[in-house]
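Example 225.
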Amino acid sequence: MATVKNQSGLYVQFTVCLIGLFLLPLPSHSSDPDPLQDFCIGDTKSAFSVNGFPCKPAINVSSDDFFFDGLSKEGNTSNPFGSIVTPGNVLAFPGLNTLGISMNRVDVAPGGLNPPHSHPRAAETGVLINGKILVGIITTGNVLYSKILNPGQMFVIPKGLIHFEMNVGEEKALIFTAFNSHLPGAVVVPLNLFASKPSVPDGVLTKAFQVEKTVIDEIKSKFAA
Ligand code: GLV
Ligand code: MN
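Predicted structure in complex with glyoxylic acid:
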């Protein structure tokens, strides 16, 4: 409570309820900022770089800009991880530009793994369509939360946390994931650490993992392009 004296000498007492401050409109806490127009089909070829893509002129927008069939095809899982992520982000589907949402298709062969990774700009949710997967989430306090999912079951990954999906069934697994960012980004831990360009110095990795350089060399060789 606060008390002030006005010019006529009358005392005006008023209460400043701190709780009232909390009722004021709060800034958006979504991952991407809210759009300022109905749509802004991203001109992903533009030479200008802003926080998102410039909008394609509305006169050039057609129905096709609002549809995307890039997630309809099964991805090729013939790679060392036995999994493939097909992105439905703003780069693949410019109609998502500024809308703060996107999706992925994740195909995982039996025994395959979508390796530990995190999304710096988004929380993720997903639904398993086919197969049986182990989903794991590791917190900043190094606690692992995990569960084996069957078709129709969903999961959620809080923004920025490391997570993985492993196919623990006999069949191919198909997952659709969704994000609260038009470009969530992905930090894939093994690739980030062992396949960066230029590469992370061996001394950093031997110290970080407490192993000999031969071990680091072997891991790096697995990811050499
Ligand atoms: C799965 O974790 C994905 O990022 O699509
Ligand atoms: Mn993910």
